[in-house]
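Class, discuss our next protein.
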Amino acid sequence: MKRTSTKMHFGLLAIFAIFTISCEREKLSEVLVNENKPNVSIGMESKIEVAGGDNFTLDNNQLTVPIKIDFTGASGKAFTVNVVANTDTIANLIANGTLPPGTVALEQGTYNFPAVVNVDYGVKSVTWDLRISRTFLERNYGKDVAMVVKMTDAAKGNTIASNKNTTIIVVKTGLTIAPEDVHYVTFGEEDVVSIPRSPIQSGYSLGSQDMLV
């Protein structure tokens, strides 16, 4: 009886060992399959126009524009994409007729976005947010405001399509912000307001949230 019990014990151990090895082989097989998946080519739209549609959100501080990067297939591995801004290109785009005269380039410090975009495994696209200062948009109300964003590197052997590596973002401020919602007020031909330091001598009063002229 004791010998039979011992045999059963060893038999169960053998079955458990075989099951464990089988699971480990299956996990290794999955890893190898994932490693052998082809890399993807990525790209963005050549131009994104914000003109009062549904491709943005606006609050009291900023305008948020989602920027989508599309892939030629599902990503075979997690990787990163580097993104940079190029506002200097706006002048050239105006000169060659791509953008209309009078288009204003976004200034450094009036926008922000992630310098590195993280891509998860198994996805066919990823979206990141460009945030633009509402104050800057209102200061240039009625004009087109633009910038160029460029992808410079896709990690782990993935590639960037040469004709889809940049996107031009154009915000038509007059269509994106309603006139009655504009906070920035200007006077005079030069669009400049000069407010002296002393309210008593200059005929205006200051409240906690407003100014009465």
Notes: Helices lie at 2-35, 89-95, 134-139, 173-176, 199-202. The chain has two domains: 1-36, 41-181.
